[in-house]
Amino acid sequence: MGGTFDPIHIGHLAIAQEAVEYKKLDKVLFIPTGNPPHKTNKEKTKAEIRLEMVKIGIEDNEFFEIDDYEVRREEPSYSAMTMQYLKDKYPKTELYFIMGEDSLLEIESWYRYEDFLNCVTVLVAKRQEQCNKDLENKVNDLISKGYKVEIVPSHYLEISATNIRKKLKNGENPKYYLKQEVYNYIIKEGLYL
Known about the structure:
Blueprint: E1 2-3, H1 10-23, E2 28-32, H2 47-58, E3 64-66, H3 69-72, H4 79-89, E4 96-100, H5 101-105, H6 113-118, E5 121-125, H7 133-144, E6 148-151, H8 161-169, H9 180-189
Parallel strand pairs: 1-2, 2-3, 4-5, 5-6
């Protein structure tokens, strides 16, 4: 599961857990982006801080691990390259990539998206309670092209990192959208103010 995780919140964790249960996954690797090509440095918190929040957020789940591959890279992070790294690291493992509906709907804009889709099964989480026609059409289109895509039966939680950052900046309290330990870290470090 990749993402900026700026910050990691209970929506991310719930989706990952639902994917574990749906596919009987051995583990979920959380891979925070280091230098995402679609965001400027002003738009994101430093990679090391986001990495630390992910470590804190997943530490009590035996199925969750972290990989700092993208954070260690100085070049922009692309999912196609990350999946190749994972294929090389785990050559006998079936790989899945957990993503949100919004990402899947824009998949053709991704760098080398065909290479990415050829080496992984995508597990997509809905961004709304009901599965919308756009998502159904996208999944069916990708399947018809030979790619492996599945919708994870999940409960949608309307939580976004963007809204959490806005709440903190506006002096509001997003405490219950985050694990307590992540919230405590954000307050201690004075993030997003």
